[in-house]
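Re: that chain you flagged

S.,

Sorry for the slow reply, it's been a week of failed gels. I finally had a moment to sit down with the sequence you sent. For the record, here it is as I used it:
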Amino acid sequence: MNRLSRFAVLFVDDEEMILSSLQRSFIKEDFDLHSARSGQEALSILGSCSIDLALTDLKMPVMDGMALLQEIKANFPEVSVIMLTGHGSIADAVQAIQFGASDFLLKPFAPEDLKAKVGHFQQIWKLNQENKKLRKELDEHFKFDSMLGNSPVMLKLKRMIAQVAPGDASILIQGETGTGKELIARAIHNHSERKEQPFVPVDCAALNETLMESELFGHVKGAFTGAHVASQGLFKAANGGTLFFDEIGELPLAMQVKLLRSIQEKEVRSVGSTKAVPVDVRIVAATNRNLAEEIGKGNFREDLFYRINMIEIVSPPLRERGDDLILLVKYFIKQFANQFSPVTTLAPETIEYLRNYRWPGNIRELENVIRRAISLGRSEAVLPGDLPDTIYRQKTEYVVPMQTISAADPSMDAYEKAAIVNALKLSDSNRKEAAILLGIGEATLYRKLKKYFE
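Prediction finished late last night. Pasting the structure tokens below so you have them in one place:
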């Protein structure tokens, strides 16, 4: 067992024989045992080792047990103390409790009484260790609370975030539009040492090109027409925290030069000022562009690319996330359900439509689709017809050649299967039209497709 996970006990007594006896009582236990012959030696051990329980004699030269107890409570309040006394009275024990001792034991004491006392504190320690572990796990869970998904690509992404977040290296998040790049940036911030400091997002695509420098670096009063008051700018607003450049590929080249200088020098100069001010920010950037290609086209500076791309993280598209789709659907239904709509779930055939779709707009598109379905839905379950035409009229995976009935299999199932195949072929794999050709409902067609082709 790792030393740090063992219950650590410190025995303090000026008599060597007593110390040896105490040590022998617990030699077979899986404890981390320490001993000291004076109060000063005990404080030295407490300062260099992690101790959970101290057992100290009351009467000792120079620094007695009561003085040591007060030092422990003042400097190591997390350490429990049992006072051992054979010289005083119950009054001494009561005073020790008042000074912060957790318990006392009168000498002479039976070994089983000593073991029972120490065993009680070990059980408390074990419970505290379990609670710490659970709190840590809960903390980790809630830091990723906004990043729904348990697919392999999402678990890999979360592990990557947890690994790189504690450092200060600049991070570039690559991914398609709508994949949740800002959520990743926020998760990085929340897992970092900067989590108590500001997280400041910068929408590079929305920045006013004329005022971009002022927005980022701030300006002094009167720096330009309309600058009636000074502004600190986004860099200073994020000081000590994380500055997130969303769609950094949209920055014009002139601003890229100034941004590069501020990142390299770790300082900014407000518009209209001659004084540079140091700033401490971590840079996280995101883009849906291929910045390597943009460099080749002359649209993005290569030196800035290498400065922001110390670590690259890829935000996976929704179509690669498997059953995360269903988790997200349930989340959005719960989030947007309201008293004006009966919708609480999706019909099974509707889920298949969603699974078959490519989702070019990713999570943002899915969110809009679910909000639309809740607004337009007329029943408890969203039906395929409640979906946008881009999804409802998509070609399905059931694209197969025209078939004829085999003489070797004249069963009704064979006739039905051939009829379905031919209807799909005639309707260019449009399920709604195929169902009309067959004279059956779309849900019935879906069940038969599952029966014959999966």
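What I noticed first: The chain has a mean pLDDT of 87.

Talk soon,
D.
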